[in-house]
Amino acid sequence: MGDGMSAAKGSGAMEPLESMNVRLPPASAAARALTRDLEALLGPGAVSCEPADRWAASYDGSPRSLLQTKAGLAPHPPDAVAWPATAEQVQAVVRYAVAERVPLTPVGGGSAGTGAAIPLRGGIALDLKRLVGAPRIDLEARAVEVEAGVNARRLEGLLAAAGATLGHFPWGMESATVGGMLATRSGGVRAGRSGKLEDLVLGLEAVDGTGAYLRTEEGPSFGPDLTQLLLGSEGTLAVITRARLRCWPAPTASFSRAVRFSSQAAGARVLRELLRSGLRPAVLRLHGPLDALLARRSPAWRALPTPLRLLLGAGQNEALHLALRAPALLNALADALPAHSLLLFVFEGDGARGEVDAAEEGGEAVRLCAAMGGEDLGPGPAERWLARRDQGVFPREGLFAAGGFAEVLDVAVAWEWLPEGRGPLRRLRARGARRGGGRGRDAEPPPRHRAHPADSLVPRAR
């Protein structure tokens, strides 16, 4: 069975194939022939067409994949899984796929939620997790050179041991790979200080769709910037094999605060002023009324309507299932909450002046918030939120098990629309739930005696 890759996807342990109730048929004669051809290129143990390995390469972190797995479905397995260990082997597989007209899908850690790494047309799943040469850290140049298969959490640990940090902390970091983060242009929670992922990339090495090797250089680009073109291309333009990334001195001190405002519009105004002031917090988040209550877990938590409190706090499946039968009512209860908002920010400092710098910038932000009507709630809510965020806590699986559906949506809006940004989305979702059809169907759970209709979910453009 391959090299045991079905036992673990990325760095997180998976349940045994039998316990997931997924049954794949044995490989076809064509798949076995494909496996033999690839083994001739990569060597024994580097290719598999075993059902368990094909299943492990057939899903990612998207809600659709999670629902299909829970329903015992694997509608898009590859014909074979290949684990190249060098860039030259990646070239060989790509050239073979081109010559034989075999579909090829690059795969990282499988943590992304877009479905881009699912081999919809079968063929070869090109799993890059064996591209794991030791990262080369250059503290003087503040750069690290790393291969695409290196796990994101492991890279951050190696940098931390050297007194540095990448400063990029995406969801799914425990199983994400460097190549996967680059191919999806992943977002990170602490981007305010170090920059977004695209700001950290100094250069890339990749194999394009013809099998040619590409290397982008640091510095200004004459014409289109190939680095920025490849970032976020999700394996459609090239297979990223190596990257040179910026790294920074690890923070030695932090200053956290939560500030409450009378409305989301008031919080949005302060958010804008903080950024205009030149302050650069590592973390800056504005929570609406419901998120503000969840973040605080203050006595106001007990003032929530009982169904909503049970839904969000107790994790009792029966209460959750009953509540999810009336999604429009839950949305109405959330809309009826007091219109408070909560601004969370974290400033960081490094070196001998780290504590002083973080405290000075944080204090200036607190004074700006107070001048604009904010109530200082101390560091607790921000620290608790950051701890949950660093642990990747998102109770999606519990919601699915109880018959609900949950997804995280990233929406970009103009500043003037920010205070009302969630309202239109919530109203659209409620309309779909009332109709019981169309794209709003996700808000309506299926009857308890029926399985999730995972095979009817339609992939949506992003």
Descriptive notes:
The relative contact order is 0.10. This protein folds into three domains: 5-127, Uridine Diphospho-n-acetylenolpyruvylglucosamine Reductase, domain 2; 136-249, Uridine Diphospho-n-acetylenolpyruvylglucosamine Reductase, domain 3 (2-Layer Sandwich), CATH 3.30.465.10; 253-443, Alpha-Beta Plaits. It is globular and about 70 Å long. Helix 12 (306-314) packs across helix 13. The two termini are 35 Å apart. It is α+β, with helices and mostly antiparallel strands. The chain contains 18 helices and 17 strands. A hairpin with a 2-residue loop joins strand 1 and strand 2 (12-13).
Silhouette? globular
Rg value: 24 Å
Number of domains: 3
H/I helix tally: 18
- The beta-strand count equals 17
Low-pLDDT ranges: 1-19, 298-302, 433-462
Which class of the largest domain in CATH terms? Alpha Beta
Shape-level CATH architecture of the largest domain: 2-Layer Sandwich
Alpha-beta classification: alpha+beta
- The whole-number mean of residue pLDDT values reads 80
CATH topology of the largest domain: Alpha-Beta Plaits
Estimated share of beta-strand residues: 15-25%
Percent helix, as a range, is 25-40%
Largest sheet report: 5 strands, antiparallel
Question: Reading side by side through the largest sheet, how are the strands ordered?
Answer: 7-8-12-10-11
User: How far is the first residue's CA from the last residue's CA?
Assistant: 35 Å
